[in-house]
């Protein structure tokens, strides 16, 4: 087999596979849709504060590995910046209790809800504030 024949065969194979890759990509759900699906317990297509807090509470319990009832920077796994951790940590112990974590969730929820309707849709979750909240939910 000549080098030019191999190149042509490779190019043909790549071109044949391209539509398949695009189809799979088109079928993949955006992250915001996956967040809503995971958190939206009443299946109304939005997330309300109670749903957000329930998901965040469950995530807190999952992340809290050392059973000291707090999350430190290692357990938070990059979900919160050092600056945000400092602001969300009123006792300045370098960790978040579940109440502190849920207070942060509520603040991020309100920041992601500019129309103040009490729910977040996919569009609101795609904003920087919505993405910051989503990191605390799943």
List keywords for this structure.
EF-hand domain-containing protein, 138 residues, Recoverin, domain 1, two-stranded antiparallel ribbon, two-stranded antiparallel sheet, mainly alpha
Q: How would you characterize the overall build of this protein?
A:
The protein is mostly helical and 138 residues long. It has a single domain (30-134), classed as Orthogonal Bundle (Recoverin, domain 1). Helix content is 62%, strand content 6%. The protein is built from eight helices and four strands, in the order H-H-E-H-E-H-H-E-H-E-H-H. The strands form two sheets. The protein has a two-stranded antiparallel sheet. Helix 3 packs across helix 6. Mean pLDDT is 87; it is low at 20-28. Residues 1-28 form the signal peptide. It comes from Methylobacterium crusticola. This is EF-hand domain-containing protein. Residues 71-97 are annotated as: Disordered. InterPro entries: EF-hand-dom_pair (IPR011992), EF_Hand_1_Ca_BS (IPR018247), EF_hand_dom (IPR002048).
């Amino acid at each position: 087999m000549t080098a030019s024949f191999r190149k042509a065969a490779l190019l043909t194979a790549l071109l044949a596979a391209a539509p398949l890759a695009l189809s799979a990509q088109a079928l993949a759900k955006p992250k915001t849709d996956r967040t809503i699906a995971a958190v939206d317990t009443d299946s109304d297509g939005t997330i309300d504060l109670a749903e957000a807090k329930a998901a965040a509470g469950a995530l807190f319990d999952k992340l809290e590995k050392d059973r000291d009832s707090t999350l430190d920077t290692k357990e938070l796994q990059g979900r919160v910046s050092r600056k945000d951790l400092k602001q969300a940590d009123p006792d300045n112990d370098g960790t978040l209790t579940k109440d502190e974590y849920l207070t942060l969730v509520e603040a991020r929820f309100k920041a992601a809800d500019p129309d103040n309707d009490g729910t977040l849709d996919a569009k609101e979750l795609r904003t920087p504030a919505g993405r910051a909240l989503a990191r605390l939910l799943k």
